[in-house]
Protein 1
Amino acid sequence: MVARTGLYALLAVNAAAVLSFFLAAGFASNALIVLGRLAGLAGALLMAFQLVLVARLPWFDRRIGMDRLTSWHRWTGFGVLWTLLAHVVLITFGYAESSSLDPLNQLVDLAGTVRGVLRAVVAFGVLLVVGTVSARFARRRLAYETWHFIHLYTYAAVVLAFTHQIAAGTTFASSAPATAYWYAVWGGALGAVLVGRVVLPLRRNRRHRLTVSAVVPESDDVVSVYVTGRDLDLLPARAGQFFLWRFLTKDRWWQANPFSLSAAPDGLHLRLTAKAAGEGSASLRHLPVGTRVFAEGPYGAFTALRRTRPESVLIAGGVGVTPIRALLEDLRGHAVVIYRVAEEGDAVLYGELAELARAKGAELHLVTGPALPDRLAPAELARLVPDITGRDVFLCGPPPMMDAVIGSLRELGVPRRQVHFERFSLAG
């Protein structure tokens, strides 16, 4: 809550500063141009805020969770698109109002005659493409690797937009304090990305020197990869967290995929378990032992640190069992584990879950059957866990299943603060 409030306060303070600099610059143009400039400033501020959200700074990640930060990044991204669209339209129509040109030719004229405008047009085009592929209908149809590669072009758009602001931004150049402010905003946002996504991962990987120590098939389409390295007892990883894994083979070194730890870290090994869902995850089965690994993380707030009650319920769907299995190993107190799959053959790591449950005195329920009727409806959850309202609930699985379970928990009256879940939909 403190971290979330801090982010809101940071955005509010900066919005107030942007508005004050805008008003201090005065209004020397028609109303459309004035409103267009204000929309452009709002878009620039939201773009900088987006960078902070996906900078992967440990302090925010541990308190908020990568999934929520990524969700905010996504919605902020649509805010950026709409404010920048308003900026382009209002500025173009504003200048067209005082010239003999139609809006389209006015935009072409501005791009050809005003320094920095062409860069802004290119940046907006790039953002439109990234926004389109990030929409749900497109995201479901793209492999993670393809979507991630396209998304990286956002950074080129950010640089182009910043140089446009330097070249053509009236408010940017209106006063020395305004200029210093915008340099600080962009410097802070880009600096956060540099530290969180370059400096910290490079330092951590240099220290731990990770390599693949074993590759173990769990089923026809699921494989576990064991990773070892130096001083792993000093790596601040917890059960329930995930890494972005980059396996440095000649054909896959450039791809990074998010996989949860499927076992609690023991100071000697890290283990991930993945189902073949794309080229990157399918290739894990063929990794040679000894392959160097570059891992970014650990990320996520889906850990035992979020507990508010001494007893818990762990609900897993499909391969979402991986962080749940690790959490069961780490959690103290009585636990009830509910594993939802279509059929028994889909129950990855079920043997390990059963053994862990026996060792820890936990209850384990394997729930099978088709998605409809809903096997985890409120009545069924209440039957399996009569005291569910007095427990923490940890949930991980496919989005439709998670949405249904969250609805059931709400209907049963489980307090929101006791429901913990992680959605792995990374951006950037």
Protein 2
Amino acid sequence: MRKILLLTSILTYAAFASPYARCVSCHGANGEKVALGKSKIIKDMTKAEIITALKGYKDGSYGGAMKGLMKGQVSSLSDVDIDTIANQISK
């Protein structure tokens, strides 16, 4: 019974977790940090800039020093996830 409750809790959390949750450790809860001392402060970016950056990281056409790291972070994001992140963070 405990295993079922634990699995249900995990699945519920995963279903409702923000796609931005994976970004918080480097970029901060509100996009206020310079990630690893190299990134832009993403809360200052427009929605269009965030979408362009995330899609570019995903297809390999965007990025500098953190391009490889970011490609791994965004590779599983859907267009809906990208839009959700952009809405949450943008000006």
Protein 3
Amino acid sequence: MAAVGLLFVGAVLFINGAMLLGWVDGRSAAPINFFVGALQIITPTYLIFTADGDANVILSAAGLYLFAFTYLYVGLNLSFDLDSTGLGYFCLFVFVSALVYSGLNFTLLGDAGFGVIWLHWAFLWLLFFLVLGLKRDALGRYTGAVCAIQGWITAWVPAFLLLTDRYSAVVTLLAVVLAVAGPVVYGALWVRMRRAPAPPAPAVPQERPVPA
């Protein structure tokens, strides 16, 4: 069930990334945030209630609420044009929590694949904090590009591996590929977007001289 939710996390990350890149209007991105946010409330709640006291299942399920509240918060911000500061500082909380979840996946849960994936998510939520909490608007498009890419490589791909029961067979390879590709891709993207020419300023109409 968690894999189904992960699949749609890929969708909302891609849409939100496209929004930050200016490809998608903000209000039109609100519904998918509500849909996936609601799904990510239902999924971990079901998993926790059916865990039969399994601490590892409860631990993994609890992390899904971090995504649920982020997307619901985004949906509300977009719908009601709220200030982004509160959402930004919640993203700081998610960033710290994601680092902890990464460490727990490497150690307690023995899942190197999601250990690396949580590091990717920690980086993304740190960018969200910088853009939304600290108003670093210059990072907006870069954050959008990282977000859109992560929708595919950290959610869509592992979701289908889990849904087709292939994840266990390729988990080590997935962890190595994501660990190497992440810094390379994000670094190259940063260099490319920094070097990209700024969009031309809009033309300012010249005032016509008033006849004497």
Protein 4
Amino acid sequence: MRENIFLRLLVLLLLSGAAQAELRLDPGFGSGGSLVVAASGSRDDRPLLAGLADGRFVVANMAVADVPTVRVARYLADGRLDSGFGNHGVSQVVVAAEHWDTSLVASLKVRSDGGLWLAVTRKSFLGSPPAYSHTLVRLGPDGNPVPGFNGGAALPLPALGSPDNGPLEEMLLQDDAVLLLASIYTAPPQGRFKALRIRADGTPDPGFGVAGLLIAERAGAFSYSWMSVPGGGFQALYTIFNPPELPRQSFWRRYRGDGSLDLTFGSAGEQAVAPGAGRYVANLFALPGGHHLGQGLGCHLFLFDSQGQLLREFESCPGRELIAAQPLGDKLLLVGQDFFGGTPPPGSPLSLRLVDGSGNPVPGFSGEVEGGLPGLYDDRFAAITDRAGRILIGHADNDAIRLYRYQEVGAVASSAVPVPALGAAGLILLLLGLLLPVRRRLRPG
């Protein structure tokens, strides 16, 4: 009887060990799980990825061409080009007549009908501060330019507050329009952001700001992020950099659909992100249902609802900087990237963490992948998940844009052979369990 109880305890110990299943490349995707999607001119050409509800996905990057050209390709779930999009799966749109020092796809958004909005930024280092130029592209669900948008051509955007214009940092979909956002920080601390609302036909929205442009200032503000709120408005997240002896604190500032400050929100249009000093949030990542995840100082993460109200906060360290937060079933995949100056250590800077709704690591998910995570420290990365629970990672090196897809976590956990984390006590029990049957056979009588 004692022997049976002992063996049961041993089985429970083995089953309760932290099984660390390694993510494996999906053999049904591309060539053995990876795919080269385009040539790349430099590691700065970070691909942007967007998933569709049916498992197809879109990849956008700057093409290697004589003039600045954005390349957009749509793929079937197995990695084949979707022939129903553009020219045999690829659409290319010229966005300017000449190159500047740097050109990149700043934002990619998918409409509910499968159409696309893309914003392209060019940067020139001649002069100080650097000059920026932005171009907006709209494609229909078939991958072709929409004739009703600027006559079917790419739309050069006015400088967002030249001469102190900045990089385009966010593009929000709002019904049949887009809101383009950039921020500038000057000394003494004086935060300023610009919002430009462009309608579906490519014209500035005359009912927003002044002829479609809003310039907002807030003394001491820095590190802007933005989110749409129900009803057509939006709110800006900013941080006040108090004197060194006081902690930083983040606030929401809400604007109506016409760009005016919503004075009914909080106190005269402003509200602390979370009660208490030192509540500091740097970046926002959009999640389904209007929720957003914010990254605070160190390993602190904040989950907000569609109104920006704090739902919960938790500790998790996905990497030095969070570059993606994606739902994976009922869990949340956090993709971090470490950025190093000087000579970086070898290997990929990416890290993958899977957490539950309270931020607790999911047992059995180690974040390790077959063959190691792709890329080097000076590559640029993107990552998304799909409804089937698969992870797609894209990165650019000096030669090409490459994609890697990993099998859904559930399938990996069931097909991989887990290695229980027993520890010293577990090993002792395991040895005793093996010796008990031997001792019984050797017992006299």
